[in-house]
Amino acid sequence: MAVAGPLSRKRRNAGRAYKIRYTPPVPRRLHVSHLHAGIVKLPAGQAHHARDVLRIEAGQSVELFDDAGQSAIGQLMFDGNGGASVAVQEVVAATESFALTIAAAVPKGERADWMIEKLSELGVSCFIPLSTERSVVLPTGTNKRQRWERLAVESAKQSRRAGVMRVEELTPVTAAMNSGWYLSTEPGAIPIDEMLGTQRTELRLFIGPEGGWTDAERAAFAAAGLTAVALTHTILRIETAAVAAAAVVMCGIGRRQRAMK
User: Fold this and answer.
1) Mapping DSSP to helix (H, G, I), strand (E, B) and coil, where does residue 240 land?
2) Burial of 194 (0-12, 13-18, 19+ CB in 10 A)
């Protein structure tokens, strides 16, 4: 009796339709504003994303995360009205020990969206859009802020960062000043890498408009006790400066935190 070999099996199975289920190496991430143990109802947008975009099946494990950095693994459940919930047994507390706030003038058009996305990916805790004397873009109202908040959530899901970057309202630069550093091209500015050895749990870093800070703004920074830091010897666009400075700070602070453990 002949035994069907690999080729004959292929012929025999030709034309049959097979459903191949893709199981991601790590659970898909879904966002809720606040996480707790028990049954967690997903917002409508996240339920639609899980059901219709990611096509996650009922009973499959997913990871939930919230704005504060908490996370949990749970089983996805659907109801007949298009809604979804996740059964959570244990919530893992946030572990981040350093909070970076980027307060920056707003670049034009899609460059601002790109900046928000990349700052979120880098783990920045908060973004404050600034109104400065030389600002060109002054986004008012809620549409732009809500768009940036959506971008921050989607970026958090993709990058697997802790929590969601908070987006504040447009703020005058003088009202945002407390302590921290401001990016400067002045000769006396301290190279930013030389400042990374200082121990801190939070930092606010100011990025000016492409026209630079005015003399009055620099005087206000000095009066508020902020430190002028230098990133490069070139003049950078707002989004380039913000993302590059955030990367340098997060890398430097993170390396020191790991060395202390």
Assistant:
1) helix
2) exposed
> Per mean pLDDT, which range of 101-105, 200-204, 224-228, 242-246 is the poorest?
200-204
Query: Across the chain, what does the average pLDDT equal?
Result: 88
At the fourth CATH level, which superfamily is domain 23-88?
A: Hypothetical PUA domain-like; domain 1 (2.40.240.20)
Q: Is 38 helix (H, G, I), strand (E, B) or coil?
A: strand
Q: Residues 6 or more apart from 227 whose CB is under 8 A from it? A: 180, 181, 182, 190, 195
Closest-CA residue to 227 (of 259, 180, 188): 180
Q: How many residues does the chain have?
A: 261
CATH of domain 99-260: 3.40.1280.10
Nearest CA among 50, 68, 36, 25 for reference residue 162: 68
Question: CA-CA distance, 104 to 163, in Å (whole number)?
Answer: 21
Is residue 64 within 8 Å of 72, Cβ to Cβ?
yes
Domain ranges within the chain, ordered by starting residue: 23-88, 99-260
Q: Encode 75-93: b = buried (16+ Cβ within 10 Å), e = exposed.
A: ebebeeeeebbbebeebee
Q: Which two three-digit tokens encode residue 67? A: 């704005």
pTM of structure: 0.81
Say if CB 180 and CB 203 are below 8 A apart: yes
Backbone dihedral region of 255: left (phi > 0), alpha (psi from -120 to 50 degrees) or beta?
alpha
Residue 18: pLDDT band by 50, 70, 90 thresholds?
very low
Look up residue 149 and give its two tokens: 């908040």
